From TrEMBL:
This is Leucine-rich repeat domain-containing protein. It comes from the Bacteria. The keyword Repeat applies. InterPro entries: LRR_dom_sf, LRR_domain-containing. Keywords: Leucine-rich repeat, Repeat. The lineage of its organism: Bacteria, Bacillati, Bacillota, Bacilli, Bacillales.
Length: 345
């Protein structure tokens, strides 16, 4: 069963205790190979501290993918997905305490600061708790009932339940567990509920609902947001309130998107898409690094875009802008720019 995001702080501490109780070993990987020279002092210090609990090492040759598959099937663990050296440590109160001392969440277990991808393996094989940090994959091998009980016991542990097919159930748990990441899709929404404003810890929000036409003001109260993705068939506008998202680094808006296309479904011609302007207030997003706005009837860009000194990536593809405005050439920090008019068809 997958987690929406990895537990942090007190939730991380509690889930480590639970995993130690239900597992025989925990596994950490060394997979950096010929990585550039970086400061690995903390990395080696943690390996040294874990040495008293080391039970065995498994080395998987990078030239033998069959070896990777064989070992993964043998232990039935997400830990073994690539070549590397895998350290197996005994689960006990002392080793668990060390894991809690050196990290604050599962995503901390990543090179070069720490060995990679903390996984807990049950006696006889099979994961109890796993992480693949580069892919942002976290999960537990528990039943739905067990997951519900764990979530009641550990605020901040946010597992994907069948009950979350209902948007109210999803938002109830997202708010309670103060999630920092959320994906909303396939709920048949025509508008976003205003109580989305209660997701005060969100850093990343993805919404893929083809019939959502307007964005509520409550969305722009999520001032910790760093990444916002909106995919729909059509948006009415980008509200001026976008300027409130001062921590936003990535904004991705794609019209002509359908998450449940009927046979023969086609998007409107882009000339008929309501989204026809970028508000000048977007220039207030000082931390914005990536801006994508695709398939719209936008024909001109506000000069306030030049104020985005952190912007590195600008994608206005499949739009109606005929030529790049001169001010884009003055934005020397831009690494990628497209204003292509290519259509979907």
């Amino acid at each position: 069963m997958q987690l929406y995001t990895d537990p942090r702080g007190q939730a991380y501490q509690q889930i480590i205790d639970v995993a130690v109780q239900h597992s025989e070993y925990f596994v950490l990987g060394e997979k950096f190979g010929d990585a550039p020279d970086v400061d690995r002092s903390r990395y080696w210090a943690v390996l040294n501290r874990l040495e008293p609990y080391l039970e065995k090492k498994i080395v998987i040759d990078g030239d033998d993918q069959e070896d990777v598959s064989r070992i993964r099937e043998t232990y039935r663990s997400h830990a073994f997905y690539t070549a590397g050296t895998y350290y197996w440590y005994r689960c006990c109160e002392e080793s668990g305490q060390l894991l809690k001392q050196v990290a604050d969440r599962l995503s901390d277990w990543i090179y070069p600061n720490l060995p990679e991808d903390l996984c807990f393996v049950k006696k006889g094989g099979g994961d109890y708790l796993y992480s693949i940090v580069h892919e942002r994959m976290y999960g537990m091998e528990v039943t739905e009932d067990e997951a519900v009980k764990l979530m009641e016991r550990i605020p901040g542990l946010f597992l994907k339940l069948k009950a979350h097919r209902n948007l109210d159930g999803l938002l109830d748990d997202a708010i309670r567990h103060k999630t920092d990441w959320l994906y909303i899709s396939r709920h048949g929404l025509t508008e976003l509920p205003d109580r989305i404003r209660k997701l005060t810890e969100l850093r990343e929000l993805e919404i893929f609902e083809q019939d959502v036409y307007r964005l509520p003001e409550g969305l722009f109260e999520l001032t910790k947001l760093e990444s916002l993705t909106i995919m729909s068939a059509e948006l009415e506008a980008i509200p001026a309130s976008i300027q409130k998202l001062k921590n936003l680094k990535k904004l991705n808006i794609c019209c002509a998107s359908s998450n449940r296309p009927a046979p023969g479904w086609k998007p409107k011609p882009k000339e008929e898409i309501s989204l026809n302007r970028i508000p000048p207030e977007i220039g207030e997003l000082e931390r914005l690094e990536e801006l994508t706005i695709q398939y719209t009837s936008i024909q001109t860009l506000p000069p306030e875009l030049e104020k985005l000194t952190s912007l590195r990536y600008l994608n206005l593809g499949m739009g109606m802008i005929k030529q790049k405005p001169a001010f884009l050439r003055r934005m020397k920090q831009l690494k990628y720019v497209t204003v292509a008019q290519d259509s979907l068809y």
